[in-house]
């Protein structure tokens, strides 16, 4: 104590032991104040009653936030008499502003799967930076990805450590993206689960251990927890232990709880939670920190009941991260008055008489500059900086008012402690949850309804509903400019590395090899030549502009949707640009500049490796329009002169992946039916589109496709002097020239690539092999007798070596390590076990199954592996649909089910024709489950009635529908190679069957033959009424066929 006569005398310290301090600690209740103690402050008019929000029945201590006190004048007090009647002077104290502290929450959720809306709303309402969750009940793997996405408010991340075995358990942390967080599992303990979260905010670290100890708590937990504390790194600072310990620390007679507290205090930890954290009145959720570190400023227990546990809220002595600032630019396009916009176009130089221009580049420059200036006038570019805060689009005033009333009832209950007030609070809490769920349902149902038939918009809404990330995962980088340059350098160096393998081969040798490798090219000699393009009319331009997709990029002067709205006055000038380009053989320079946006190939890949990104090129809309016109005219010429590679299915009208695989499967099944085997090799090319040699492509256009004069000049201008630059968030990298390759993201690029690789088909045909091509995917196969397998394998090797040599001479890299080999055979065929394929010193062993254009072929052609893969993928989407079904109307649920599930089931399902019912049953079960999810019917509801109400065919009828549709299209000009094995049934004139137009059904010997397209399709087609087979259009055929199949159920 301080002596009165000597105020500067040092303070005498009070000394006490640890046990003496504990002896005065409050245990059960706070003793009441004596009356004289109360009368003294009342007499001095400074008596104030400080309420307790939790109610006296909770007996929690008053929480105090330690912070810097603000500056104020004493004259501004509500009651000036509180300090007595003496004269007072205003005293102003210079203090630092109070820093915002980090908000950390803890909750035992008892399954987060049904509490996404409540938890997200709680994080936003309480402005939490960190939320630790125990008992997430999430599983390992990707099963709960939808739940993970929906648990993240905007600007937050979610990390979890699920229980490795059994149900329940699991730990998680939801944190702001502006925080640096690293999460790891703590293994080695059997009595509790633990995850460590290393958190850093503004350079200050914190180490949070989230713990869950499942009941019953026994001595093993105390021993393991003590060991855990002993092994904790001493160097770790600002350590917090938080979680559900399932120990009743409020009960001083509980020996387990006392042992837990003693174990923590032994190593310097103290427990901060006071009051009940469970509905039963016990304190189970605890927060520990070291006494010497002062990392925790305040701890309170919230009375909002999310589960049977109450949330525990803490303030940490760490700087609260500020909301990130997002800089963006936009135009208010919706405020544009189209009539005024068109009027300005009509008064501009774009609608004036033809000006004297030097070339098409000047026309394009005028077109772009004038439209940009008009757009700047009507919708100027606005730049803004906003702080990104968590937000929910469906939040409305009704929810806000209901939450305010909930809070009112909560305060009333905490003050009175009456059961009636508790019931009011609980009923209002349930009402708030119902309102939030209903508002979210109405919001997304409206969005899906507005999508109409636009599948792109529909998938966008579904992704938003499933909380799939829209943001681009970027590698760690110093600046956006350097990141763009790094990506640009990587993409260029990748192509240069491939091209460097051909540097030792001279151009003359390449040219000689090119001419010599075009074997059998006279088969495709054209009867005419392609010298020039035809001039188009304004009506042709108008039709093409309206028929193309309304996709825009940063290279377009105005958005494509606005261009289509104002197309009428622009038609003369736009048609003049196109015709001048076609007539002069000049492709505008500005159309050769591409914007590249890398995207991560798979979310599971390392985002810091550039090789895991796929470049997506964007080109101006007018460039695509000009390419579309050239493509139509050039493809017409190729079709009329039969210059297309007959077995190339990519980028051709009437051909698809399914028609290509139907042709290949029919050949395989027919060979197996003849008791032969089929050896197949699937070739893989590295960066095929990016390594096309421009000079060799132009030579092939001349020699093989007879392109000359201005048309050839146009293609030269189209290919040469191209460049690209990587673009991220408004930042552009350096420009890189493209010395080879066909433009990705273009209309003509895929067509030119198929023309460039057409001689591969000539080589394979000369070798006597069968094959099929789809873009850069080539499959070569040879049927043979099992006894002749060795010789046939050698012949296949010889053919592939010739193909490899041709690839090398044409500067294409055949990836031997990714080339696959499979032998299709029946279970009774005897094939040598050591039969391998050797290509360029690479030994390829036969696989049991291969993925062929997305469809899994097994060596016995049972298709069971493919069915399992389809069911697994579809079932994942069924779970997704089940998660979001409460927010969808019936019509919206049907649309989403078709987009996510039935589209997967129907994809290439013609390959499943003729399979046993036992093989198709898993797919039928997927359809049944989907129907129940969409209709929200009990599991015992009759599925046939349910499918009929949804107008869904069973799986066998769906397969039959697809097979007959493919056959109908092939008989009417599509995919001519499908029609080859189909022959009309020849009968004597005068018979009644002559007028029924039957197809010939080939004779078969095994079930393989019955499953082949030539047999199954012809049988099914012959069983159709003649009226259906003679349908005039595809839509009419589909409508009549579906009605017929429903009637035959």
Automatic annotation (TrEMBL):
The keyword Hydrolase does not apply. The keyword Cell division does not apply. Residues 580-857 form the Reverse transcriptase domain. GO terms for molecular function: RNA-directed DNA polymerase activity. It comes from Holothuria leucospilota. Keywords: Nucleotidyltransferase, RNA-directed DNA polymerase, Transferase. CDD domains: RT_nLTR_like. This is RNA-directed DNA polymerase from mobile element jockey. PANTHER family: ENDO/EXONUCLEASE/PHOSPHATASE DOMAIN-CONTAINING PROTEIN, ENDONUCLEASE_EXONUCLEASE_PHOSPHATASE DOMAIN-CONTAINING PROTEIN.
